[in-house]
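Throughout our pipeline, every protein is held as a single compact record rather than as scattered files. The record that follows is passed on verbatim for readers who wish to inspect the format:
___
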Amino acid sequence: MSDLPLQRFTILEVNDAGVPLPLRLAASLAGKIAADLGATVLKIEPPDGDPVRRAPPLLPGGESALFEFLNTSKHSLVLDLASARGQGTLSHLLESADACLFEEPAKVADLIRRNAAAPIEIAPFPLGMDPAQPFSEFTLSALGGLLHMVGEFDREPLRLGGHHASYAAGLTAFTGLTAALAARDAGTKATAVRVSLAEVVQWVNWKAASGADAAGFSPGREGKQSEFQIVRCRDGHVAVVYTVSQWPATRELIADPRLGDAKFHTRAGRRANVAELYEILLPWFAGKTRKEIQSLAQAKGVPFGPVFGPAELLEAEQYVARGFLAELVHPTAGRLRLPQLPVQWNGRSFAPRLAPGLASAQPGGEELVA
């Protein structure tokens, strides 16, 4: 612990009752990153516990895998923030904390804004939009234009797997958190930080908005008309991706003389003739395994990517070589393999740590679990 970059900081993560899941996940991810980097993160849960404790997928012992991923390195405090006692305890904790992560609908939002040294607020919408309107990660992705980019044109939009909007907002909140802490270290008063999930989704999808502004339209949901597609191979699927400068190497890799036709020489030509292009490409992939395709493509400098299932990632060569999946012995769930932060600092990786008492925190009372 002696050389962790955030070890000298104490951060509150306030998860109030009634907060929608996307905001909870965003705040929890920001707190997770801080905790894995050494900060003391105190997670405040409502009397019935963070609902994420009961969210699927569940581990064999009944614990939520999502909750363990987001919260393993934290401490827990169960508070009823609707009570005077709970608010008084929170006010006391804010006096000594370096920053506080919280969600906009929280009952104690005004209390935190007034008293936190660095309030980091996570909200669904920009200022000026009605915060009370219903939303979900799916509708936020639609509002930000992300669903316009996913799936086939002639079918319903597809929900992206995982929690892209929430996790992008959590990373954004962590960026704001570190900026606030750096300002305090420099002797400058840290200003309040506010993160809007809707704006984060638009930022993640910036190319679509930029393209629409420049060209008057934004390509999206192109399906089989897309320049880059997922195609079948002998043992699964591969993503066909290459840059303009990599087209000559791609043509040499596939080694079909028909790709030398002048209509395929430019990107505009390939897009205009994409159906014919993939008629030529597909047989080359069909008879090869993902590993064979990746090896042949890498030798030519072409970034074709195999599509992996989650279980396959446990033995993926790059993750194994980097020791990316760290082992942790959980008091109730047993042996867990959890991803480390995808960053190294002076050659060091950051694995989750089991904070004493978090896994055994029992909802239903106001007690510190340390």
In short: The CA atoms of residues 57 and 368 lie 27 Å apart.
